[in-house]
Amino acid sequence: LMGGTGNSPCASCKLLRRRCTKDCIFAPYFPSDDPNKFAIAHKVFGASNISKMLQELPVHQRADAVSSLVYEANARVRDPVYGCVGAISYLQNQVSQLQMQLAVAQTEILCIQMQQDQQITLPTTPLLFDEDDEKSFLLQNNLPQFLNFTPFNNSVNCDSFKKGTLYGHDMVS
Amino acid sequence: MNSTRCAACKHLRRRCPSTCIFSPYFPSNNPRRFQYVHKIYGASNVGKILKDLPENYRAEAANSLYYEAYCRIKDPVYGCVGIITILHQQIHNVQCQLAGIQAEIAALSTQSQNEDNQYQQTLIAPTLIQQNGVPNYTSYYDIPTWFD
Question: Where is the LOB domain (chain A) (predicted)?
Fold first, then answer.
C-alpha cells in the first residue's frame, strides 16, 4: 500500500526505504518527484525530528512549516557555520544602512527647506552700500552649505536570500 | 574525562569524555541551550555539523544552531525564516520612504536652482549709477565671484 502521489512512495519513504502508508505524514509535502527536498531536510534535521515537528502542528500549517524547514536546511548546507543567521545578520545590516540613509535624506530636505525659507527678498532697485556694510550683509545672510553624501554601496551579493526565492506564495496566509 | 559532564552528556545521560565534541559549546551551567538544539536537530546531527567544521568555527556554528532552534521553538511554523520575511518587509518599507524623500529633494533642488537663476539674472542687469563722483556698485551684485 503506497501513499504519496499515485502508486509511488513519497520522497521520504523512498529515502528511508520504508513502506509509504496512506496516512504518511511526509507524503503531502515531500512528493516523489523532488527527492532533494527531503534529502536536504533530513540531512540537517533528521526524519524523526521533522515528523515530530509536523505532528505538533495543525494540518493547515504544515506546508509552510515544511517550506521554512527546507529553506533553513538549504541555508545550513550552503553555510554550515551561520546558516539562516547569516542572512538575518546581512538583512539587519541592510535595514540599519537604509535607516541611516533615510535619516540623512530627511536632514537634507530640512536644510533645503530652511535655506529656501531664509532666501533674501530680491531687491527691485540697486541698493547703496559701503564696503563694511556689504560684508556684514553677507555674513548675516550667508547661505548654509549643502551637505554631500556618498550613497551606501552594498557590495555583498546575497541573491539567495532575496524575497522572491523564499516561497512561491505569500507566507502570511 | 571531565569531572563535570557538559550539558549535552548530562541530557543524554552518558559519560563526558575529554574529547567530547559538545562540551566546549554546551557548558553544564546552561542546560536549556543543548535542550533546544537537541529538540530541533538531534544530538547526532549537531555533533556531525560541529565535527565537519574546523575548530575555530565551531563556537559560531553552535551559537547559530542555538539561535535557529530557539526561533523554531518560539515559532514552530516559520522559525527564523519568519524573521527574514519581516526584515525583507522592513527593507522594502524603508526603501519606499527613501525613494519618496529623494524625489522630493530632487524637486526642491530643481526649484531652488530655478530661483537662483532668476535671482542672478535680476542682479546681473542692474541699473547703472552715473559715474560722476559716484562709484559703480555693479560688481557687488556679481554673486558667483563672492563665493569663489
Answer: 8-109
